[in-house]
Amino acid sequence: MALPRCCILFTRPLSAAQPVVLRQLVRLSSSQPDPATPPSSLDTHKPVAPTEPYFVRRTNPGNLPVYQTKKRGGNLQETKIKKIEGNITALCVQLQEALGADSKEVKINPLTNDVIIKGWKKLQVTKFLEDRRF
């Protein structure tokens, strides 16, 4: 015996809520954190430093947007920093000083607002951004 179509819709299981939705619900439901509960493990990154003229947004999982790419058959290795807002030139100058690179190795892509660094320097760039509390 087959069930009518309208009953089948009610028997389907509902999908689980996504972590992003859960974080938004928790943030909206409680404006003041309860001191008895430990801090949430979902927001593990440190607060942003207000002194920097630029801001690097994190990805949805909470990681820094630093990526390594290969071009020209693997001969050209690059590190990209995405999701940059504000004064990108200031970030570029600070990266040159921190990595000991010259102006030819650290460039700005004006169309996508990405910083492109010659070579694989993901660990150094990630440490640089975490030291500045991004």
Any key phrases for this structure?
134 residues; two-stranded antiparallel ribbon; alpha+beta; four-stranded antiparallel sheet; globular; 4 helices
Strand and helix layout:
Elements: H1 5-11, H2 19-29, E1 54-56, E2 66-71, E3 76-81, E4 84-86, H3 88-99, E5 106-109, E6 114-118, H4 122-131
How would you portray this structure in words?
By secondary structure, the protein is α+β, with helices and mostly antiparallel strands. Helices cover 30% and strands 20% of the residues. It has 4 helices and 6 strands; from the N terminus they run ααββββαββα. The strands form 2 sheets. The chain has a 4-stranded antiparallel β-sheet with strand order 2-3-6-5, with helices on one face. It is globular and about 50 Å long. The chain starts with a helix and ends with a helix. The mean pLDDT is 80.
